[in-house]
Specification:
The protein is built from 24 helices and 11 strands. With 552 residues, the chain is mainly alpha-helical. It folds into 3 domains: 179 residues, no CATH class; 87 residues, Arc Repressor Mutant, subunit A (Orthogonal Bundle), CATH 1.10.10; 201 residues, no CATH class. Helix 4 packs across helix 9. It starts with a helix and ends with a helix. Bound molecules: zinc ion (ZN).
Length: 552
């Protein structure tokens, strides 16, 4: 009982206790890699057409409004963003389909019920949901500039579409901003929209009359669509030319190339996980190699490195989750890191005993003989399948299985062999890799130095002590010192280390879901019947891919 109370003590009174994320700082490396491969799209920018809606709003407001103080802009903008989402959800209710219409629009969680009321014949006031002073349960977004301020402004500034900030005011650029705004404007009923925003009262007739604002129209608006494709694929010329962003262009083309190839496989549909598994192995579901155009070679290799790092991250997070889960069920406490390592090896002996009787080098050589080839990614013992099995075992709350599968992933990664530069094309400073210490370079270095001298039990103890507890304590101390946040999942108290909570292992979100969705919004991919997030290449997508590969 005393220990229970102690465990919940706020041990540093000034720090805010939060659940936090990335407790071993492994996903920070993943994030660095995918940000390089997909600049200008983020995990919270869900809809391609928002890249023309926002500059249009700023441009149209500028043309129409004499009063341009920041408060007025914010008041009108927030109503407009709410109305935009309600229009999308209304079309979704009519069409009985979420993805092309209201899916992923800003403030959706709050506004679905509101849009349903309108759809059922009711009348609502936009200001009731858009006002900054609205009740928090009604307010569609907390940030003053809503989803634009929180999600889209950063990428739109990077792409030179918008400029400024919430303090100085948001402006459209005269090149990209004005171009996209005018093209958007030519497809929508601008006056009707601003009248509705001003009048505040919204009913079904008004929302239906504004259907041209729904994101689904992008695929049919040739010029607006082509301008957004120019933006995302870096095709701008003259004053619309971008200096950066070529990696985004290549990743989007690689996705289209992958979608073209998957049509010929048993799997048929294209999705982000299939894309990553294909990049990692360079084989697709028909067991045939995925050969890409030479100028996409570096990009496919970049995603392969990302996926290799993700496998390492899943294994490390798995060891951490399983250890803390089991310790929580056992004593809930250890004296120190060394004691944890011993406890870990003893506790997990049932699932790790095959490792304990061999030397580390022998474990790796043995693994090389039995592991499936890289191309056999559908085999149950391929590291990609093992990672998915690990997540399944975690869902079934089975720490023994998770530890055993984590060890299998680590040995698989090492058994695949060393390369001179584990992060290849990516520029990662030594200091970065020292700070984010669980990484592919360290894995390779340890495997050929420290670990090669150990037996299996010593290796398991080393991982438990160093790549679980010590790394976590360092990461949590950094967050405490620099962000005044207490994210300790194991709390160091005077008499030892107490488990607070075991964070679950999970894949990172590398913006690919958004990239696939953008290609869908642009008409290059269609939704597949195979499930959420699965797509098929369209005729337009195929033409686009061929034209762009010819251009390269
Ligand atoms: Zn629609």
């Amino acid at each position: 009982m005393a220990k229970q109370a102690l465990r919940q003590t706020q041990w540093v009174s000034s720090a805010q206790t939060i659940a936090g994320r990335d407790h071993l700082a492994v996903q920070a490396v993943s994030e660095h890699l995918y940000a390089d491969l997909l600049p200008g799209i983020t995990n919270v920018t869900d809809r391609a057409r928002c890249y023309s809606f926002y500059p249009w709003f700023v441009w149209a407001f500028d043309q129409r409004s004499k009063k341009k103080n920041t408060e007025e802009v914010i008041r009108i903008f927030r109503r407009a963003e709410c109305l935009h989402t309600i229009i999308g959800i209304n079309h979704e209710l009519e069409a009985k389909k979420e993805l092309p219409h209201g899916g992923g629009l800003v403030g959706r969680d709050t506004l679905v019920a509101v849009a349903k009321k309108v759809f059922d014949g009711g009348t609502i006031q936009l200001s009731h949901f858009s006002s900054l002073d609205a009740e928090s349960s009604d307010r569609y977004f907390k940030n003053k500039f809503g989803g634009l301020g929180q999600y889209y402004l950063g990428p739109l500034k990077d792409l030179e579409v918008l400029d400024g900030d919430a303090r100085t005011g948001i402006k459209y650029t005269k090149e990209w901003g004005a171009t996209l705004a005018k093209l958007y404007n030519s497809t929508v009923e601008t006056s009707k929209f601003f009248d509705a925003v001003r009048d505040d009262d919204i009913d079904r007739t008004i929302v239906q009359s504004l259907r041209s604002f729904c994101p689904c129209n992008l695929r049919n608006n040739g010029e607006e669509r082509d301008a957004l494709i120019d933006l995302f694929l870096c095709r701008g010329r003259g004053e619309l030319k971008h200096a950066g962003g070529a990696e985004r262009r290549r990743t989007l083309l690689l996705i289209l190339d992958y979608a073209r190839r998957t049509r010929a496989t048993t799997r048929r549909f294209a999705d982000p996980q299939g894309f990553l598994f294909g990049a990692y192995t360079r084989f697709l579901a028909d067991d045939k190699p995925w050969i890409v155009d030479s100028h996409l070679e570096k990009t496919v290799e970049g995603w392969a490195i990302y996926q290799r790092h993700e496998l390492l991250a899943i294994a490390a997070q798995g060891v951490f989750w399983a250890g803390l889960t089991a310790l929580g069920l056992d004593a809930g406490y250890v004296r120190d890191t060394a004691a944890y390592a011993k406890w870990f090896a003893n506790y997990f002996q049932p699932s790790l005993s095959t490792y304990f009787n061999s030397r580390f080098d022998a474990i790796i050589s043995q693994h090389q003989l039995i592991q499936p080839s890289l191309s056999e990614w559908q085999s149950a013992n391929h590291e990609l399948s093992v990672a998915n099995r690990l997540l399944e075992a975690q869902r079934h709350h089975d720490p023994q299985a998770v530890v055993s599968l984590s060890a299998q992933i680590l040995t698989s990664l090492i058994a695949r062999g060393c390369v001179e530069q584990p992060y290849g094309q990516f520029e990662l400073a030594d200091r970065f890799l020292d700070t984010y210490e669980i990484n592919l370079a360290a894995l390779q270095r340890r495997a050929t130095t420290t670990w090669s001298q150990m037996d299996g039990r010593q290796w398991v103890e080393w991982i438990a002590a160093n790549w679980s507890l010590r790394v976590h304590l360092r990461v949590a101390l950094r967050k405490l010192r620099y962000q005044t946040q207490d994210t300790f999942r194991v709390v160091p108290l005077e008499d030892g280390l107490y488990v607070r909570e075991a964070p679950a292992a999970k894949w990172s979100s590398p913006r690919l879901a958004q990239a696939f969705r953008f290609l869908h919004d642009l008409g290059a991919l269609d939704e597949s019947v195979d499930g959420a997030g699965a797509y098929l290449l369209t005729g337009f997508g195929e033409e686009l891919l061929e034209a762009e590969l010819d251009r390269a």
